[in-house]
Amino acid sequence: MSFDTKRVARLALIGVAAASLAACASRPKPTGPVAPTPPAPTQEAPPPYTPPPAQPVDQGPVPGSVQDFVVNIGERIYFDTDSYDIRADAQPTLAAQAQWLNRYPAVKVRIEGNADERGTREYNLALGARRANAIRVFLTGQGVSASRIETISYGKERPIDPGTGEEAWAKNRNGRTAITDGAR
């Protein structure tokens, strides 16, 4: 080996040794106060989504249902003593019944005529039948097909108020339009 080659090899060894020592040397400690390192921000995972409790929504009766008819229109009208004439205060209810029935042509009804407890059974059955028929005539006069209406008299057999006296009797002198078929 030549002198130059030996010299280059020695210089290379010295360089490798110096680099090794530099890598192993400790770093000097900083002098003076050192600012603390702030902690790394932590991100908490948001809580899982919980939907609010369902609130019942009162949407009212379903249009075209029995409940719609009873609540929004009215199923019952009242009569004077020993009379089957439609009273003036009953006409708006019957007109509304006719409009509702014309809106829902698949619906069929039964008109129930009722009487108070006074009078004989036969008399009250006849009076109940005349009351049911008077309602039927009113409804057909408003365009409701007669084929959709049946009538029945219960006379004094189905009182809505079991009491005795004018207040109870006034409630029991009635005609009820009951839906029998075709409602939602």
Helix and strand topology:
Layout (H helix, E strand, L loop, with lengths): L2 H22 L41 H8 L2 E3 L12 H13 L4 E7 L6 H21 L7 E7 L10 H7 L1 E8 L3
Parallel strand pairs: 2-3
Antiparallel strand pairs: 1-4, 2-4
List keywords for this structure.
single chain, 60s Ribosomal Protein L30, Chain: A, alpha+beta, 184 residues, rod-shaped
Structure explained in plain terms:
The structure is a single chain. It contains 5 helices and 4 strands; from the N terminus they run ααβαβαβαβ. By secondary structure, it is α+β, with helices and mostly antiparallel strands. It has a domain of 116 residues: 2-Layer Sandwich (60s Ribosomal Protein L30, Chain: A), CATH 3.30.1330. A 4-stranded mixed beta sheet has the order 1-4-2-3. The chain is rod-shaped, with a radius of gyration of 48 Å. 21% of the residues are buried.
What is this entry, summarized?
It is built from 5 helices and 4 strands.
End-to-end separation: 112 Å
Task: Return the CATH architecture of the domain at 66-181.
Answer: 2-Layer Sandwich
β-strand number: 4
Taking the sheet with the most strands, its summary is: 4 strands, mixed
Order the strands across the largest sheet as they lie in space: 1-4-2-3
CATH secondary-structure class of the domain at 66-181 = Alpha Beta
Principal-axis shape equals rod-shaped
* CATH H-level superfamily of the domain at 66-181: OmpA-like domain
Structural class: alpha+beta
Strand portion, in percent?
A: 5-15%
Overall mean pLDDT: 87
* Element pattern in H and E: HHEHEHEHE
**Percent range of helical residues:** 25-40%
> What is the number of helices?
5
Radius of gyration: 48 Å
What fold name stands as the CATH topology of the domain at 66-181?
Answer: 60s Ribosomal Protein L30, Chain: A
Q: Give start-end ranges of low-pLDDT stretches.
A: none
